[in-house]
Amino acid sequence: MNPNRPFDCRQVQPPALTRRDLLKSVSAGFGYLAFAGLSAEAAAYQSPSLPKAPHFPARAKRVIFLAMQGGPSHLDTFDYKPLLKSDAGKPGDKGKLVAPVAEFKQRGQSGLWISDAFPKVAEHADELCLLRGMHTDIPNHPQAFVQLHTGSARFVRPSLGAWALYGLGTENQNLPGYMTIAAPIALGGAQNYGSAFLPASYQGTRIDAPPGTVAVAKKNRKNDTGMNQGIGNIHNAHLSPEAQRSQLDLVQSMNRDLLASAGANSEVEGIIESYELAFRMQTEIPKVMDMSKESAATLSAYGVGQGESDNFARQCIMARRFAEAGVRFIEVCHQGWDHHSGLKSRIASSCAAVDQPIAALLADLKQRDLLKDTLVIWGGEFGRTPGNGSADGRGHNAKGYSMWLAGAGIKPGISYGATDDHGGAAVENQTHVHDLHAIILNQLGLDHEKLTYRYAGRDFRLTDVYGSVPKAILA
Questions:
Q1: What is the rounded average pLDDT of the residues 35-39?
Q2: Could you read off the pLDDT of 71-90 as tens digits, one per residue?
């Protein structure tokens, strides 16, 4: 203001009145007190999926579990038993012994015995750790499959992926931390990816296998979002993102009021988290699922558009894309391994559907420098019997079978454990499902004995009171 000029009140502009100032001044400031309380409550809320520190330095940042539903035959794939071939036709525990339907060869520099049923995976023998002494408790599909996923065949318990998410959170807050592709619902349903008594936010998000061709998926995209099929209702046809956000803010404020008045409630917390995640997923997940961005060479390497391998190839590409995007636990399921008859043709068909996609996944992860901190697991709920009532089939076998691990600090190119001469039972370095779970958690930097959750007056853990980590398989 110029001191030589008379004062003109018109030169003074009142400061703009903000909503915060209005709340402070109206009704003795009670409106502002309510606003401050809600703001503090919102600020205090933290997503349960935020990253958490492991118990010790982790070798794995993420897990890709290739679940083969139905009990793959170890005797025709990864467990070489020359006596089973020479003794074929002789009496066995479950009927006459059945010879392996595929020839075995030593593969790679490691010399691991792998059958011709998996010629592409066999090219990666030097990356694999074969667990040939696996065993589980019950030779029935529903119980064994649920036990593979939750550690228990009798009780409803949190799934392996839910425990991993509970222990570590996830890196990308715009995506679920636990994704299950072509979810294994035929045996045990949602138990296989559920959270049971853990907070609901840790359960797996189920998506269907990507149907059709990449060209079809590209044709179905909308508004440059890269939308792919697999998750229904991903877009709101009636509200804009801004209107959805306003609506959600109102609903969430009421949910948090309920939480504040009623106290801790995992169900309400799960609803809050699921609403927020669903809103963020609308933008993020179609981009991750849009395989039209993949090169022709990559699609061909996985086996997209190549007959039997097409469907599983898409799932494996999606799994790699989720891994790149920061998803903690990814499961990919393939059904149809229950080969009681037609063994030779059905083994060939099942292996052909997954062999090339799995081999390409391993190669792709390695080329992108992801295999070093991605734990890849392959296997089913149990194995098959050496003998059978049919000359071209095998029964259920929970006493001995094979699985394999790769990446993330697992010693490559080795075989650990063994079954007897005919492959009927694990007899050396036996590895129970509880041990497998302990191994997986260990590679994630989690002590399976310390990862507990208090429920019904007891501290529960994935491995119950069992489980050990064999040091011989760790690099």
A1: 49
A2: 999 999 999 999 999 999 99
Q: How far apart are CA 31 and CA 18, in angstroms?
A: 13
DSSP character for 16? P
* pLDDT tens-place string over residues 407-458: 999 999 999 999 999 999 999 999 999 999 999 999 999 999 999 999 999 9
SS (H, E, C) 261-310: HHCCCHHHHHHHHHHHHHHHHHHHHHHHHCHHHCCHHHHHHHCCCCHHHH
Contacts of 315 (CB under 8 A, 6+ apart): 181, 182, 209, 210, 332, 334, 357
Which pairing describes strands 396-397 and 383-384: parallel, antiparallel, or unpaired? antiparallel
Burial annotation 326-338 (CB, 10 A radius, 16+ → b, else e): bbbbbbbbbbebb
Domain locations along the chain = 62-174+185-215+297-388+399-429+448-473, 222-289
Residue 67: its H or E element? strand 62-68
Nearest to 159 by CA among 189, 131, 132: 189
Q: So what's the pLDDT on residue 4?
A: 54
Burial of 213 (0-12, 13-18, 19+ CB in 10 A): middle
d(C-alpha 94, C-alpha 384), whole Å: 11
Residue pair 377/63 in contact by the 8 Å Cβ criterion: yes
Q: What is the dihedral of CA 100, 103, 107, 111, to 10 degrees?
A: 60
Full DSSP string of 220-270: T--TTS---TTSTT-S-SSS-HHHHHHHHHHHHHHHHHHHHHH---HHHHH
- What 3-state class would DSSP assign to 387? strand
Distances (CA, A) of 141 to 7, 192, 397: 91, 13, 10
Q: What is the DSSP letter of 411?
A: P
Residue 293 phi, psi (nearest 5):
-80, -10
- Bridge partners (DSSP) of residue 384 are 396
Number of Cβ within 10 Å of residue 67's Cβ equals 23
pLDDT higher than threshold 90 for residue 272: no
Tell me the CA end-to-end span of the chain in Å, nearest whole number.
Answer: 77
Cα–Cα distance for residue pair 217/228, rounded to 1 Å: 5
Decide: 432 and 470 in contact? Cβ < 8 Å: no
- Cβ partners under 8 Å of residue 365, min gap 6: 320, 323, 371, 374, 376, 407
Quote the mean pLDDT of the chain: 86
CA distance 34 to 41: 11
Cβ-count burial of 322 within 10 angstroms (0-12 exposed, 13-18 middle, 19+ buried)?
A: buried
Structure tokens at 250: 């109102």
Provide CATH code, domain 62-174+185-215+297-388+399-429+448-473: 3.40.720
